[in-house]
User: What shape does this take?
Amino acid sequence: MREKGLTGELIAEAFGTFILILLGDGVVANVGLAPRLESAGYDWNTIVWGWGFAVVIAVYVAGGVTGAHINPAVTIAMAVKRDFPWSKVVPYIVAQIIGAFLGALGVYLVYMEGLQAAGMPNVWATGPGSVFGQAFWGEAGSYAAGSTGAFSIFNASVAEFFGTMVLLWGVLAVFDDRNWGVHTKTNLGALLVGFTVVAVGLSLGGPSGYSINPARDLGPRIFGALVGTKDLFNGIYWLVPPVIVPAISGAIGVFLYDWFISPFLPGGE
Assistant: This one.
């Protein structure tokens, strides 16, 4: 990879995260507002596959510049165990949050009239009040303090912990040349990372809405609050499962990969 300089890297991270949210929150808005089909025509699968392909496009676009972290959990994990410079961690995270904020702006512009007519629902962030929280999880009014449907903050945190680790395991395996090295042989790395996100969403995403990316949740949440979506920062849910837990569990995921997989690969120590 040719050196682009930090400015170029930050632009790429912001642009990649912008694409991620434009398409990812875009599918959430499409499901919530259902402009082309009755709401029954959309389901959790639509959300999951929309987010998966959002990741694919974002990684393909930004990957040649930075490897497409587009996720503070990935950036922190790479600094903890993969020699990514700590001096770049905060700038990368800031760029990712800015890109996510701008991606939410893009979604707002695309779905503006529908969002306004619906009272500016939460298509931005996971957890209590989210569109698919209301549509698929529990009874109306069940989102009392500390609850997302039938799941507590603790349970949602456990889901984010495992979901983010699985994401990192998929990323590490796909881009590990000592493993099968799929990305170098077929240029399918971004697609397989997207499939990893699909797998997390289908299998582990229910309790929390699978943020697995602090910038993905926080940037759009800030934007949503500014345009009038209510209760996005009530309580501490917004900080713990979608932000703090992924930032920690991604790094743990790298350690587990290096303990249980790396030593047994060709050339492993």
Q: What stands out?
A: Residues 5-33 form the longest helix (29 residues). Residues 69 and 225 are 26 Å apart (CA to CA).
